[in-house]
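Q: Please design a sequence for this.
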């Protein structure tokens, strides 16, 4: 009974402050996901005014994590990705719409926002990245896990919905996620 009572405050804190994120995973994803954009043969079709617009989608309780990701990406890429200008937006899941102009969306965890990102990506064709590999089951395209080494997971069933055509070498590097 005492153990149960000790767990209750931790459950409350997680609910109050949002999902618990792994800093190492956030750093790895912030470093690798933008680079993957350059491996899309159809990237020019996804540019917004000639720029790569990389959006970080979050629920209200994950705002600070979204800002952490933004800072990591800005520090790594200095507003340039290859030959393109890189614009980073931080946007609430609830503010995403068919009018949102992005090249890619990196989705933090959300109870209902993941489905919104997935359906918008199908309509608009932007690339999607998931913090949590489980969100590939909900229609997102790529995730990354740090296991014995860094592993990029690609949802093969979702590939056709994203209007993405990667260079062949990426397919040799990824593991295909079982949806």
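A: Design:
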């Amino acid at each position: 009974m005492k153990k149960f009572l000790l767990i209750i405050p931790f459950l409350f804190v997680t609910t109050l402050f949002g999902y618990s994120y792994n800093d190492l995973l956030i750093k790895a994803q912030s470093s690798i996901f933008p680079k993957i954009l350059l491996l899309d043969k159809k990237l020019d079709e996804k540019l917004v005014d000639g720029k790569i617009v990389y959006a970080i989608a979050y629920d209200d309780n994950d705002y600070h994590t979204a800002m952490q990701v933004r800072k990591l990406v800005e520090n790594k890429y200095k507003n340039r990705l290859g030959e393109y200008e890189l614009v980073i937006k931080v946007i609430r899941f609830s503010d995403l719409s068919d009018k949102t102009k992005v090249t890619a969306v990196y989705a933090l965890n959300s109870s209902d926002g993941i489905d919104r990102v997935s359906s918008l990506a199908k309509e608009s064709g932007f690339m999607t990245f998931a913090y949590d590999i489980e969100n590939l089951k909900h229609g997102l395209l790529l995730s990354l896990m740090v296991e014995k080494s860094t592993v990029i997971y690609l949802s093969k069933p979702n590939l056709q919905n994203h209007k993405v055509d990667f260079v062949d070498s990426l397919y040799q590097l990824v593991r295909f996620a079982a949806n």
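Q: Thanks. Anything notable?
A: Residues 8-17 have pLDDT under 50 and may be disordered. The chain has one domain: 20-176.
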